[in-house]
């Protein structure tokens, strides 16, 4: 359910891509520093967007450092260090932990259960800092799991629960921007859940797993219906984003919200059209 909120590299300036990459690597290095190599495995583009967004809004003190890593072993590259990046790393691991536990409950996936157990141990001290937030995230994931087991077809309801989770992540603290960030996160979460279900629908049908679009898949207007719903979700995201006083990296964020988020949808749709 992760990795859909990314950039449109073709429409991005080289300098902007370097900044985006520095944030991506910043979250990655924070995961390594705070949770070890296994923490890095949880890294996602969605959380990189969250780091950019929160950094643009709150402009925290930050440092630009250089390192080499497994992904880039022959060249030192820049990465961003800041309290916001560390916060996003913590949220990334927390979300991944409960997703692993949810996968175990749903599919009895032993590997996910083992990985989740390791993440729980690695993140124990950090999770104490966000106990109320953690409880809300866990509660929403449990509700999602229950609705999926009940074969819920109310996409608005079930995607809204994941929207609640993303809202909790983007609202780092209560302040004058909390309502706007909450709404942005809510619709972003709904977008992610719906696009993930659209992406997985064929596999879920074959494996006889839950998917809210199983009955609609194959209808002539299926792709267009999903596009309309996703457009509504992203329109609300963009509307709330434009209310925020963000100047730093605003164009990178607009690249993601207005263009990058559609890359995966178009890729899935084009792949299915080739099969017809």
Task: Give a quick summary of the entry.
It is built from 12 helices and 2 strands.
Structure description:
The protein is mainly alpha-helical and 276 residues long. It has one domain (9-257): Farnesyl Diphosphate Synthase (Orthogonal Bundle). The chain is built from twelve helices and two strands, in the order αααββααααααααα. The protein has helices at 14-35, 37-40, 45-58, 83-107, 110-122, 124-127, 131-149, 155-170, 178-206, 222-241, 250-258, 263-275, and strands spanning 63-67, 77-81. Strands 1-2 form a two-stranded antiparallel sheet. The radius of gyration is 18 Å and the shape is globular. The chain starts with 13 loop residues before the first helix and ends with a helix. 39% of the residues are buried.
Number of self-contained structural domains:
1
Q: Report the count of strand segments.
A: 2
Query: Oligomeric form of this entry?
Result: single chain
Structural class: mainly alpha
Global geometry: globular
Query: Would you identify the CATH architecture?
Result: Orthogonal Bundle
> Share of helix among residues?
55-70%
What is the CATH fold-level name?
Farnesyl Diphosphate Synthase
- Rounded to an integer in angstroms, the radius of gyration calculated over CA atoms is 18 Å
Q: Give the name of the CATH superfamily.
A: Farnesyl Diphosphate Synthase
How many helices? The count is 12
Q: Helices and strands, in N-to-C order?
A: HHHEEHHHHHHHHH
- Overall CATH class: Mainly Alpha
For the record, give the distance between the C-alpha atoms at the N and C termini, rounded to a whole number.
26 Å
Q: Strand sequence of the main sheet, in spatial order?
A: 1-2
Strand content: under 5%
